[in-house]
Amino acid sequence: MRFERLIWLWLILTVALGWEYWALNYIPRLSLLVSLQQQLPEFKDFNLTTAPGKTISYALGWAGLTIMLLTNFYVLRKRLSVMQNLGKLEAWLDYHIFCGLFGPTLIVFHSDFKVGGLVAISFWSMMISVASGAVGRYFFVKVGRTKAQLEHQSEAWSKKLTDALKRNNIASDSPEFEETRQRFFRFVGTPEVKIDFLTALWGSLVSDFRAMFFAIPEVVSGWPPETRKYLYFWAISARDVQLLDPFRRALGYWHAFHFPFTMLMYITAIIHVAVALLFGV
Q1: Beta-carbon-side half-sphere exposure of residue 132 (alpha carbons within 13 Å)
Q2: 119 and 13 belong to one structural domain
Q3: 121, 28: one domain
């Protein structure tokens, strides 16, 4: 839930920035900054233009760069032994992604939606890094537990299902049960055979979107209501067991793709900042 809340916070802040940008450029009377300027005489001469190189643009640029640099605390948390006890790694990853989204958002407004030259290299490297970062979190979630843990979880859900059916005198080895099981397993994309990581990634993404927008299948009429949940989570955990190795390989490929664009983003950003400070452009 923490990650979802951070995503909502990013969306709210982005909408607020978008509203303020639109108001300043098209209907100033609806701008919060304009209202504050009218009420605070000391800010009467404050330049509220969003053009690159002006006060607002500078503030957004420095704020965006600072927040993007904060994403590297997650890397330090992973690699430095002195930081190993500072919170859960999953929480650090969530804040890493939040900063990786909000920082570039500020940079987009800093540029006044105009990019070119050296700035374009940094900008598009940043956008590729952000997009690949979101994919990376998806991989990380998939490989966050050991195979033994996943198998234990799968067995636990299977046992809950069979126990619930047994209490109601329903056979768990009937063709009806097997048909229902296969229907749930197909719904979540649990492979019945070993597959390569591209097939695993595509099947997992499709099934996750399907689960988000469509109701999970119904169980057989007469089965206890809780068996629907048990069967669904059994299918999910069985899928995670099958896809663990493909996603571990995918995470390795992802690192090889993500890192160069991140480094290119920082290098060109540093050059951009240095040129702006030295030459005022």
Answers
A1: 19
A2: yes
A3: yes
Position 274 confidence tier, pLDDT thresholds 50, 70, 90: confident
Sequence-distant (6+) residues with CB within 8 A of 232 are 184, 188, 216
Counting the structural domains of the chain, the total is 2
* Residue range 87-108: mean pLDDT, rounded: 85
pTM of the model: 0.71
> Residue 175 corresponds to which tokens in the numbers above?
């063709």
Whether 102 and 213 map to the same domain: the answer is: no
Check whether residue 115 and residue 232 sit in a common domain. Answer: no
45 phi, psi to nearest 5 deg: -95, 10
Residue 55 and residue 157 in one domain: no
Provide mean pLDDT across the span 22-48: 84
CA distances from 209 to 67, 111, 137, 189 (A): 30, 34, 16, 11
pLDDT at residue 14, as a whole number = 93
| Amino acid letter, 78 | K
Report d(CA 239, CA 241) in Å as an integer. 5
Tell me, yes or no, whether 132 and 176 share the same domain. no
Is residue 242 domain-shared with residue 153, that is, in the same domain? yes
Output the average pLDDT for the chain. 82
> In the Cβ-directed half-sphere of 202, how many Cα atoms lie within 13 Å?
4
Residue 1 has pLDDT above 60, yes or no: no
Do 238 and 161 fall into the same domain? Answer: yes
Domain that holds residue 20: 2-144+249-279
Q: Range with the lowest mean pLDDT among 15-24, 39-48, 94-103?
A: 39-48
155 token code pair: 């067995």
Give Cα 112 to chain centroid, integer Å.
25
d(CA 56, CA 65): 14
Would you mind telling me the total number of residues written for the chain in this entry? 281
Q: Is 149 exposed, middle or buried (0-12, 13-18, 19+ CB in 10 A)?
A: middle
